[in-house]
Amino acid sequence: MPRLTKTFTARFGHAPEGVWSAPGRVNLIGEHTDYNGGLALPIALPHRTRCAASPREDDLLRIHSLQDDAFVEVLIQDVAPDMPKGWTAYVAGVLWSLREAGYAVRGLDVVVDGQVPLGAGLSSSAALECSVAAAASDLFGLDLLGSVEGRSALAAACQRAENDIAGAPTGGMDQAASMHATKKHALRLDCRDGATTQVPFDLSAHDFTLLVTDTRASHALADGQYGARRDSCETAADVLGVEFLRDVDPSALDEALAKLPDDVLRRRTRHVVTEIARVDEVVEALRQGDLAEVGRLFTASHESLRDDYEVSCTELDLVVDTALAEGALGARMTGGGFGGSAIALVPAADAERVTAAIAAAFANAKLTAPISFSVTAAGPAAKD
Ligand code: ADP
Ligand code: MG
Asked: Rounded to the nearest whole angstrom, what is the distance from the C-alpha of residue 175 to the centroid of ligand 2?
């Protein structure tokens, strides 16, 4: 018996009704665009979080994780901001927000086992939420996994759990990727209306691979800076008289920038507008099989995030610079920044050499050893 079901059975005295799982994600391009009504292009990772669960007749949630000693019991009716505290808020929040959205859910016995690195910018939080949401959908007969609309409803409930109960003010990209991204495809996500399009993404057909490097850096200023970037974007949109920076036409960018009162607002706006344009340029290059162009756009995105949006850091820049020096077609930070992970587009045959070069560069700079791994585009939340 796998460790997950064994632990479940030992803790609750009965076998789980089933096991559901959901992937982490890595965003190919389109960073800090979600809260600007823009575009993003994530893939689902092969790394998944599994959730063993059984429904209960009452309102009680009993939650345990193989990654944490905590065992928490909470009534769904008592779930509120910061209640329960810590990681169990992500689980309890999903049941709470499904009920808020009008779905008839009851309590659950839950044990989770996450393979997505925690806090690496690869969305272990969405993988956790979406695995629980998938379980709830099947166990309470909500029937939401079978349609795109149903999956969007589950993703929305997971985002609300993260925002309102866990207290993390994130956009909806992570949950959308975990619910909608399919094997061998990237997910073009329109964050304004939630529309999703599957874009073929199979680098192995070109003998290339996507190398992900978890820098294992997490800089304390991240939270406040995220809020500050959002505020700048709102201010710029207000000055320009648009709802979102998405509404600024890239071909009229210079005129828009001339209307902004200071250099910081101009640089933040230039990042957002050019980054949204780059997403569709990558989509087009992928459709053409033009990986050199995809790589060029990745690197342009990194430079924009580093210089205009100012959310990169030493570790992320070092991964990007080293990968490019070692022959990557392109590389960029991914996720919110100030730590987390970076991606590089490298010939499959060179992945080991690039990995070693990145490790050597970190050792040389006396930084914590990073972890690099090749990924393919995997499938969405589902029953195992
Ligand atoms: P990311 O989503 O990039 O991994 P977050 O800070 O959004 O980073 O989420 C990480 C948090 O999610 C962890 O600190 C922990 O609270 C929670 N988490 C995710 N997966 C698990 C798990 N399997 N067990 C316990 N907590 C988890
Ligand atoms: Mg997260």
From this structure: 9
Are the CB atoms for 110 and 91 separated by under 8 Å?
A: yes
* Catalytic residue of the set 34, 113, 164, 174: 174
Determine if the pTM surpasses 0.85.
yes
Nearest CA to ligand 1 atom 16: 87
Of all protein residues, the one whose alpha carbon is nearest to atom 3 of ligand 1 is 121
Compute mean pLDDT per 10 residues along the chain, 384 residues long, and list them.
94 98 98 96 98 98 95 97 94 98 98 96 97 98 98 98 93 95 98 96 97 91 84 98 98 98 98 98 98 98 98 98 98 95 98 98 98 98 98
- 3-class DSSP assignment, residue 51: strand
Pocket, ligand 1, Cβ cutoff 6 A: 49, 65, 67-68, 87, 90, 112, 114, 118-125, 128, 168
Instruction: Look up 164 and say whether it is catalytic.
Output: no
Alpha-carbon distance of 301 to 111, in angstroms, equals: 39
User: How far away, in angstroms, is 119 Cα from ligand 2 center?
Assistant: 7
Q: Which domains, ranges and CATH numbers included, belong to the chain?
A: 2-200 (3.30.230.10), 203-375 (3.30.70.890)
Q: What is the DSSP secondary-structure string of 92-139?
A: HHHHHHHHHTT-----EEEEEEE-SPTTSSS-HHHHHHHHHHHHHHHH
